[in-house]
Amino acid sequence: MPGLKVVQPFNAADAKGLLKTAIRDPNPVIFLENEMLYNDPEAASTVGQELIPFGKARILKHGSDTTLISYGIGVKHALNAASLAEKEGISIEVIDLRSLRPLDYATVFSSVKKTNRCITIEECFPICSIGNHLSASIMENVFDYLDAPVINCAGKDVPMPYAKNLEKAALVSVDEILTAIKKVTNRL
Predict the structure, then answer these.
(1) Is the pLDDT of residue 188 over 90?
(2) Spatial separation of the C-alpha atoms in residues 185 and 148, rounded to whole Å
(3) pTM > 0.85
(4) Most Cβ neighbours (<10 Å): which of 68, 89, 157, 184?
(5) What range defines the domain where residue 100 resides?
(6) 85 lies in a domain?
(7) Burial 176-187 (b: 16+ CB within 10 A, else e)
(8) CA 165, CA 4: separation in Å to the nearest integer?
(9) 43: confidence class by pLDDT, cuts 50, 70, 90
(10) Are residues 161 and 84 both part of a single domain?
């Protein structure tokens, strides 16, 4: 929806900094959070007092072979997949969007120009998703730099089941991300 700002932090420091920015913003802000990260040690961080501006992504890990772009809990999956890929000699760059609207296109495009490959990661449905929007933007703006198609790793296109085992099957997994990494780097 035009005019709305949308943020979704991965860790505690980003949550506090983005929430402080949202409170000070005179316009509507949608602040999304994933309760699965509340007690997750991977999402724990030192919490400071600084404000985090909207529209500024953060590169969590620098690499040269493939860019992984995510937000919220998807960042956890991206970092875990990056660790596994690096054990196989694949250098991964991980970008945490933090802000979904406005998006930090400059950081995304710069990373894709460097790595020449991109995978978007999110738990939401694949239709009308941030990953699809980023794929289109990357194709429109930095297509000549791509050595492989952009892959969108997202949740399955099914209603979210209630049973724990089915819910796990409906969401994106680290194994799916690792397979996508191997696919774009021609290591399958």
Answers:
(1) no
(2) 8
(3) yes
(4) 68
(5) 58-184
(6) yes
(7) bbbebbebbbee
(8) 35
(9) low
(10) yes
